[in-house]
Amino acid sequence: MHTISRRLVQKISVPIFRTSTHATKLISTQNQHRYEDKDPETKLFGKLLIGAASAGLLATYFDEKKKVDCKVAQTSGTFKDGLPEYTIEEVSKHNTQESRIWVTYKEGVYDITDFVPGHPGGDQILMAAGSSVEPFWVLYGIHENQHVYDILEKYRIGNLDKHDAQTFTQNMEDPYSSDPKRHPVLKPASVKPFNAEPPPSLLVENFITPKELFYVRNHLPVPNIDAEQYKLEIEIEGAKKTVSLSLDDLKKMPKKTITATIMCAGNRRSEMVKVKTVKGLNWGPAAVANATWTGVPLRDVLKNAGLDQFDDKYKHVQFEAEDVDATGKNYGASIPIWKAIDERGDVLLAYEMNGAPLPRDHGYPVRVIVPGVVGARNVKWLAKIVISEHESTSHWQQNDYKGFSPCTDWEDADFTKSPAIQELPVTSAICKPYDGDTIDVVDGKILIKGYAWSGGGQKIVRVDVSADGGKTWHVANVDAQDSSEPPRHWSWTLWSANIPVDNKSKTVGFADIMVKAVDSCYNTQPENFEHIWNIRGVLGNAYHKIKVNLKQ
Amino acid sequence: MHTISRRLVQKISVPIFRTSTHATKLISTQNQHRYEDKDPETKLFGKLLIGAASAGLLATYFDEKKKVDCKVAQTSGTFKDGLPEYTIEEVSKHNTQESRIWVTYKEGVYDITDFVPGHPGGDQILMAAGSSVEPFWVLYGIHENQHVYDILEKYRIGNLDKHDAQTFTQNMEDPYSSDPKRHPVLKPASVKPFNAEPPPSLLVENFITPKELFYVRNHLPVPNIDAEQYKLEIEIEGAKKTVSLSLDDLKKMPKKTITATIMCAGNRRSEMVKVKTVKGLNWGPAAVANATWTGVPLRDVLKNAGLDQFDDKYKHVQFEAEDVDATGKNYGASIPIWKAIDERGDVLLAYEMNGAPLPRDHGYPVRVIVPGVVGARNVKWLAKIVISEHESTSHWQQNDYKGFSPCTDWEDADFTKSPAIQELPVTSAICKPYDGDTIDVVDGKILIKGYAWSGGGQKIVRVDVSADGGKTWHVANVDAQDSSEPPRHWSWTLWSANIPVDNKSKTVGFADIMVKAVDSCYNTQPENFEHIWNIRGVLGNAYHKIKVNLKQ
């Protein structure tokens, strides 16, 4: 069915979605286009894409301050009278700086040469040079945004030859078409890939978050895995021995349940961007949740497989997932080996969430739970485990999820110098009321609710709340906290505070509320986002501050 | 030689310094008065004293803002013409609120009834009721201060009968008389007990701190222990089996050396007191140092002694020391059992510091090194280890070394609700230049040096320095850091930064320098002391800020 020229096939031959090289079988491969990946140019483009594969990285300044709505009226890519027509063949010749960079979008032809330097996703845009941007926009749905359409249309130079346009667009496949249905209460920060959080006020209603309310952080389309066919591969790098385990094999082992909070490194990014623009999804304070996880301790799996005896040179445990990016690279991450083999590390290969099989969005059939550690290492749809001398080489381990100084910009960010985020620092947030709400003053007091959590198994030992911008503080009540001791305290703490407000003067009528938590290492939160600002907008754990109107 | 009446002996029969009940022998007992301790009243007073035994607690508002100088001219306690004379017998009758509280100091008699509620050390002052304050002032040298003399003299009501005065004062013994000689470079925050730190600028000259420069934090007189006679007792609470080990027994076991920083919980208190008065020694930023420690892993000692198999109910390892307070209570502290038995916890029973036997001030012959954990748990002069269901009941574990909210004052501080400090939070300090210094600007830049450290085995991953009050930041260079990975990174990081200053305008001529560190959990420091202020002035880890004058 590929009616476009061979040359163009080569040009767009970056595989959108291909079958994993792992033993595991993906069953949702219907209608997938599997292009041959032998063109050296394509491989170069593939490499370029590695740096772009995070949807977070592509969540640019275009849409930082508002949630993406894919249903906005689209005015880009429609046929425009009075513009010249170009064939695909002609467009394909404009694929270098010298020949100018042309791309197509539906029926539109665009010369984006002058936009390339300003593309928030960097050079990766060159993958579409001389061809259509659509496969990439389909994969990184963040582009499907009125603001992006408007920018693109500024570079319009013509219309695509009508016959070519029809052929071309018919071949566009949506790799997200088999994503699961989500509960409408989840508010998307991006739809493709799906990233969404619940309203914060709902979050603090339950110590254990119902699965429908648990934030979703997907980097790529959700793989559709047949549990019957599921195989987990385990290997020691450089050794010949590998082990392959089915889901049943895992379920036959003694199971363990832990309660653990998972948090996205970008949680509360929407507060940090107020200081200065960052690259990343515009998360509110609800990219965090708490659940029970049932599965097999990773250390037992390794031991059982005879893989617990290995050389001291091995320092990391790498996880590879079933979800694949546009270059065919699997999502991956790693953790230090001590965390994996320590009984008190409590790392699980989990197959249940809140007592039921994992939902597809949360890693069905098997995910890693690395309690106390950033969500990105809690790899979903686990396919392979590698015991290695090195960290995962994946984009998400090497070139994402790292912290930088406020003085570091993209130009001088050296990702090799900054450690991959593992344990997360102490944080807290007010979930009720919201910033700008008008709330009742009852007996001179207002009721505030929220959560606090710290990574590394540290317990929250105190939450301080102020209603006068930090002049006076009140110790919040602990509403829910589990009894495990640090450094194996994995769950969040839900708190509330009924604090007095000075509302005698009717002209005031508002309160500056802020919260900060202290963990069992007595670490506490930084006061402002200003001095912890970083290019990726991660680790946003400053005091949470809101302003509310008071009603007597 | 006790010529004072039996009744009075009972009254002052709180032992100042008594032989340990442990197997270990103290040899510096010459001229010590050992009073019998059978009077129920004395026991009550003993209990009261438990709460006062920390010299830190008695380092009151009297002398918070200046170093104690014991050589100030003393005008208190001298005979004053025209006042009535009282015998010891008469004074001793005034030992209750009803009969009024009288005390003596040298030749002076004082009615301190109205001062008791305001005594910063609390009710403990009642131990001296109807008797002399001198034994307590000798033990807690912090009282030997002109400001305290002046306050006392306000309550003067008479002179002590001349004969009684002579007899009484001759029996005052200085339990600190056998303390070791210290290097004069150590700047005392208190002399009895000895607490001192070196000039910060010297501290950052060496990654390994020479023993003479290592800060000294003593709560009580330094015991003088004969290593030949040394015995370490180990028991499981409630079990009959105990083990006794000599120093030779310990030395015969496989030894291990670790490099670890120890920090006092009160380090940098002198910055916190600028917000509001606290109780505690006025430490600068040099109550921290780094050394190599050689000894036997605690877990090996327990295992070797057959004490590694015990019920899960045991949660703590208590340490008792040879130094004793005025009630005969030994200094003590405890750590959670996981830290003690974890190989990666690296807890040592150390007998060497920097390759030589421990100096007396640092715990000779054996101390505990609990890396990553507050100095107070690194118990010196170790006498006994108890595996227990409970934390140490010592004053220093229960009623000291705990954090509180800025809103908590002494009246509402509930020590049972706040966890004992163990792992310390991330901190950093500028050691060179000092606040107020005038420094050279070379090629538009100034050179700043300091340290950074985090407890819990976390490594410093970045130090940010600003010379314009936080408007712009610069990443400091790491000058010295060991290669161990978190969470077993126990040493500090020494850093320097050569940062540009805007000194074009000659009218400016100064720089607001500040530093903050980030650890491997990406925890960072709070910005200001204001919101971390606490009654005991501990955990002072806000940004270190200094102002310097610039010289072109």
The share of residues in helices of chain A is 10-25%
Percent range for β-strand residues of chain A? 25-35%
Say how many strands of chain A there are.
28
**Under the CATH scheme, which class of the largest domain in chain A?**
Alpha Beta
- Which structural class fits the helix and strand makeup of chain A? alpha+beta
Gyration radius of chain A, to the nearest Å?
Answer: 25 Å
Write the layout of secondary structure elements.
The structure is a homodimer of 552-residue chains.
Chain A: H1 6-11, H2 40-50, H3 55-58, E1 85-86, H4 88-92, E2 95-96, E3 100-105, E4 108-111, E5 131-132, H5 134-139, H6 146-153, E6 156-160, H7 162-170, E7 187-190, E8 195-197, H8 200-203, E9 216-217, E10 231-236, E11 242-246, H9 247-252, E12 256-263, H10 269-272, E13 288-297, H11 298-304, E14 316-324, E15 330-336, H12 337-341, E16 348-353, E17 356-357, E18 367-369, E19 382-388, H13 395-398, E20 427-432, E21 438-440, E22 445-453, E23 460-466, E24 474-475, E25 477-480, E26 493-500, E27 510-519, E28 544-551
Parallel strand pairs in A: 1-6, 3-5, 10-19, 21-28
Antiparallel strand pairs in A: 2-3, 3-4, 4-6, 7-8, 8-9, 10-11, 12-13, 13-16, 14-15, 14-19, 16-17, 16-18, 20-22, 22-26, 23-24, 23-27, 25-26, 27-28
